[in-house]
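Reproducibility note. Readers wishing to regenerate the assembly model reported in the main text can use the exact inputs given here. Chain order matters: entities are listed in the order in which they were concatenated for prediction.
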Amino acid sequence: MANKFGNLFTITTFGESHGPAIGGVIDGCPAGIELDFDAIQKELDRRKPGQSKIVTQRKEPDTVEFMAGIFEGITTGASIGFRIVNTNQKSKDYSHIKDQYRPSHADYTYSQKYGHRDYKGGGRTSARETANWVVGGAVAKQAIPEIKINAFTSSVGNIHLETPYQELDFSLIESNIARCPDQKKADEMIDYIGEIKKQGDTVGGVVTCVIQNVPVGLGEPIFDKLHAQLGKAMLSINAVKGFEYGSGFEGAAMTGSQHNDIFNPNGSTKTNYSGGIQGGISNGMDIYFKVAFKPVATVIQEQDTIDKDGNIVKMMGKGRHDPCVVPRAIPIVEALAAMVLVDNIMLDKARRI
Amino acid sequence: MANKFGNLFTITTFGESHGPAIGGVIDGCPAGIELDFDAIQKELDRRKPGQSKIVTQRKEPDTVEFMAGIFEGITTGASIGFRIVNTNQKSKDYSHIKDQYRPSHADYTYSQKYGHRDYKGGGRTSARETANWVVGGAVAKQAIPEIKINAFTSSVGNIHLETPYQELDFSLIESNIARCPDQKKADEMIDYIGEIKKQGDTVGGVVTCVIQNVPVGLGEPIFDKLHAQLGKAMLSINAVKGFEYGSGFEGAAMTGSQHNDIFNPNGSTKTNYSGGIQGGISNGMDIYFKVAFKPVATVIQEQDTIDKDGNIVKMMGKGRHDPCVVPRAIPIVEALAAMVLVDNIMLDKARRI
Amino acid sequence: MANKFGNLFTITTFGESHGPAIGGVIDGCPAGIELDFDAIQKELDRRKPGQSKIVTQRKEPDTVEFMAGIFEGITTGASIGFRIVNTNQKSKDYSHIKDQYRPSHADYTYSQKYGHRDYKGGGRTSARETANWVVGGAVAKQAIPEIKINAFTSSVGNIHLETPYQELDFSLIESNIARCPDQKKADEMIDYIGEIKKQGDTVGGVVTCVIQNVPVGLGEPIFDKLHAQLGKAMLSINAVKGFEYGSGFEGAAMTGSQHNDIFNPNGSTKTNYSGGIQGGISNGMDIYFKVAFKPVATVIQEQDTIDKDGNIVKMMGKGRHDPCVVPRAIPIVEALAAMVLVDNIMLDKARRI
Amino acid sequence: MANKFGNLFTITTFGESHGPAIGGVIDGCPAGIELDFDAIQKELDRRKPGQSKIVTQRKEPDTVEFMAGIFEGITTGASIGFRIVNTNQKSKDYSHIKDQYRPSHADYTYSQKYGHRDYKGGGRTSARETANWVVGGAVAKQAIPEIKINAFTSSVGNIHLETPYQELDFSLIESNIARCPDQKKADEMIDYIGEIKKQGDTVGGVVTCVIQNVPVGLGEPIFDKLHAQLGKAMLSINAVKGFEYGSGFEGAAMTGSQHNDIFNPNGSTKTNYSGGIQGGISNGMDIYFKVAFKPVATVIQEQDTIDKDGNIVKMMGKGRHDPCVVPRAIPIVEALAAMVLVDNIMLDKARRI
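Running the prediction on these inputs yields the following structure tokens for the assembly.
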């Protein structure tokens, strides 16, 4: 609970951005997987700070160090322990937020819940935690190489990529720093984020994720429907405010005769409003979903806030924060999706004795 | 897993719509709660079929029968067993769907996953299951009477209730059969559903839920954030395609300086884009979220579909189905919310030794 | 938790001996198992009261009624709901124990933990609950017909069956009411229990269980070792005070050179002090273990005890209680073992993607 | 599962004896505990190798390094990550066991289950793992300082400490290297272990554990009885073959009139055959139990065994192994008991909303 994700393929994590290291334990990874460590590091590099001008300029190499569960490069079935040493937790001055609660952060709620709060760099609430998930997801991806998971930026502020995903070339996702597989839209997004950054402000966005080549039959009714598991995973990411799959919120305005996905003889469907999942179980069609991210709460503008005694104080964000988290959120969305998928493949396998 | 919901306050359910009974076990309910059985039955009545002209005309009394865990009307701390006898599972002819897969139902996915399928009335995939959840939620509500949970219909098709929830009078929700606390909008919705029904079609909609008087500190970071738990719960409901809380998908288009909720001296906030949850933990403000429902897949119109051998066949929905599930979904949304809340109150309590 | 057993093949139960029914939900049973309902009832008959002169003379048919999860006699993969109606909960007078705590029962601890106690027939603490487990175990056995599970009475009081299990004929277990596969020892046990009963007293005993034809590789290190799961299961049975497997407590007095099980070329071992499990994982040899049962606490003799106000009062057991639970515990031990086995077969399967 | 222990206070571990480090994540530890790091290290020192002449002479400092979850020396409620660097995993020659299965070790079962095996130092099956548990237990102890947990050596081979625990002085446990609070018996044990060691052999033993000052009401019926949780925990320790609590196996030979614990007016009992637990729930009396350890399988004597191809080969244990694990098992037993206790205090608290 709390710091554990998954049922059979699980990850349990720890770490604050300003402690010595973050890390975790991957428990339940099948034995016999020959790991490609470069591929794992590459996923971390997609998430790491400082990678482009539209993300935070903090520098952190995010090198993962495996401590157990792998022998001669191959998983043994034992739990996999890993850590990522924090190299950027220099004794910066955090005294200005020690006794203050930043608006729309978790400072206030953590203080109320736990009494004792690690205020440095957001403590456990820092999105630095998601580097751990990327490690777990990178291992998960290698356990299910046949499944293709592609996430990309589909909105930044009011700039929307309207093209249906079927018409996109996913190989372009990594070709620009917005991670939008449409160069024109990507340029608009990059420019807009640049502007927002100049204002000391931040902006939200939307990530779309497409999962292809999924076997039929994954997902556990009634309370572990595949989309419910995916939804919970995505809603765990910092700043996420919404999740929809298939027709999503638009589907709510449709009629049944429009929305029904008519079958082809081979069990595939002519349309895919269902989003690849029916009754909580994958039907072999593409799974696709959208994840909404709010704007980062730290703005480099003066704001009113309160201190722990309820006094109104002036506060201004310091440090190097992301003007828009969406480009760096892409590998995180994929990582969580990969862990959900491998978990459900294992669950499905277990049911077929 | 699968048929179990919750961590400490759990419900594990069973039942097909055409078997002898549905039911479940509530495990972990605190001892000493004097149950109001009429209130429980009233919740079931809000969900039951046949209650109005805009829902299915099937008749089912949905009387809950408690079998254990209650002594002299008071919970004992033991598991609470209950069942609801199916009175409407007459030997209707289902041979027409025995070997056919209805479009956008779970017939195909269940057949592929399990091999052996109960085709009568949808078997385990029937939304009849949600009556079990309403029982669990009704008990949960009584464990936390101080918390106010109100769900209502906010959209049917393209008819949207735009009024901010703060300006609505929740006591009007039950005053009309659309369960929309704005009589004018309700009338529009009722008319529209009536039309759709005449066409043998169905339509989707949106439910908004508001949870008030929530203590500060509920929710478990990192992977059991309060909104992630609520989201997973809502995504478990049949036909749900999306979940958003607080600013939701609209928040993705905002800037940080707009979106930040500025504190009042007492820790409350001037705005509530956060939706009552920050860092996954309740902050004492109202929690509110939206749930998108697709249109019911069973339409009384001829459609192409396939049989188990992949032959294209004609099919036409039979029986008495809901033209729009949203009015009957209201108590289900509330029930799940109540179970999530009591579970998190218990989890929070456990952490404070 | 609490009323749930198992990881992937789970049973969640409810029921008090004097309520309307006991029952439960089997969640995770694989689809496609054609159930032999007579075999399930036969297991219940082995456990039921009134079956012989050395067990309680209470009469209870213990007829199981399945409510869901089975279609045309075959499991569907959906949760299986069942109940056993209580026919013997007549409005007996329990006022004498309402405010008293029987020695070595759970009256006092339940009262302290829950405040509100169902004092009729022991409420939730009644071993009647184990009938639910027998249902779960009987279904589990049918999921893994290749595995042979035989439990038998190996001690009653100081009468011990010393013969190594390899020299016993398990087909004799059901040939006598003591369920001891050695007629001479069985006669001694039956006579002794008869005597004890005449004195209004009770006596403890030991059950040995042997599991044969187990595949190599079952069990989950580190904290779900196969024997740890079996041990926890057995320690859940009312009145159990100890569990040992393989060499058990005697092994603690041995030296390594005596205790080591030397391999045969095919991976089997010449001796089996390991009890079929090494490092928590089955090695293909017979699994065997012993379970110690204390004497039933209800004696038909006058005893001092206290009431809820701490006054010393005289009490004398009433009703029809077992002079020795061991003969009726045999099917319970087997049932739990079967559920542990099927659960671990599923877990093992999941790991091999 | 597998590498996770506990329900609300959990530890998830990793590590092989010859990898870079072992470690784990403590998830669910309450916030606000001011940790005494010396006390934690002292517990590790009680378990560490090389501490006396009757244990393995391997040298390993076992210094724990905390990486997260603690701020200014106080727990924050976040997950606590820790590791213990392996300093003694020098590139020793393990080629002799690479393709051989040591008798009564887990080499064969791990090979069969996982295919790919870390053969160095036993890999994940090494009892080095238990150092992680000692860390978890040491933190747990500090969360519940009021509860007194004392384990000690009660048997080595056939040398038994027969004195009832009530007559022992627990302050003597650490006064000798056998960890037996009776100097005369301790001397006998030490001599015997010395002899056994000279023979290149090993010997088993028994640990008794006494838990005092336990509040009434801990434990979760039906399947998480306090003693069942303790039993499962103890059966997780390498080499454990049996667990009994209260009267244990001896209780099986007693009559009910002997075995019943008669109440004192204050709810305490005159005798304590129940072992402090009735119906799975603590009754406030001392909890006591015994744990049987088999002799270590590695003997420095030539033995027949097989290689992976089923050939009979000669093998002789190398390295520095424990002639008797019992003295070093004492802190491990205590650590697991402490984690079970704190977990159940949290569970009990959760139930009392």
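We highlight two features of this model. The two ends of chain B are 28 Å apart (CA to CA). Residues 121 and 337 of chain B are 27 Å apart (CA to CA).
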